[in-house]
Amino acid sequence: MLSHDVAGSPGRDVLASLKGLSGKSIERVRRRRHITQADFARAVGLSVRWLREVEGGNPSSSLEHHLLCSQQLGIPLGQMLFPLLYLSRGMTYPLPLASLDTVELETRFVELIAERNSRAVRDFLGHDPRLSGMRS
Hints:
The chain contains six helices and no strands. By secondary structure, the protein is an all-alpha fold.
């Protein structure tokens, strides 16, 4: 769905708002740590000009650059990824929630995926006749 959005569509608006929130968060954390734009841009492999675009929330800035900057600063990626999950399903994500700490939610999400994958492997091993002799 994201790739089919057109200018002015709700998906584009959500992405633009998301980049604005992300940029503010990146700038706030960078400043709090007393890291200059030049030093941070160098650390993530961006020019200072592009970092300004990211921090300014320019809608044409790359989502990849937002994720790269967030990861470098240890900002939970869920702040961007959860709204994108909603958007990909045609649902509206309450954007103010995107600025909240999502570490616990991310942890639960990863645990849920790990448990589901473990269950799928156990089910596969339990139902594969070639492996039935390998179980104890």
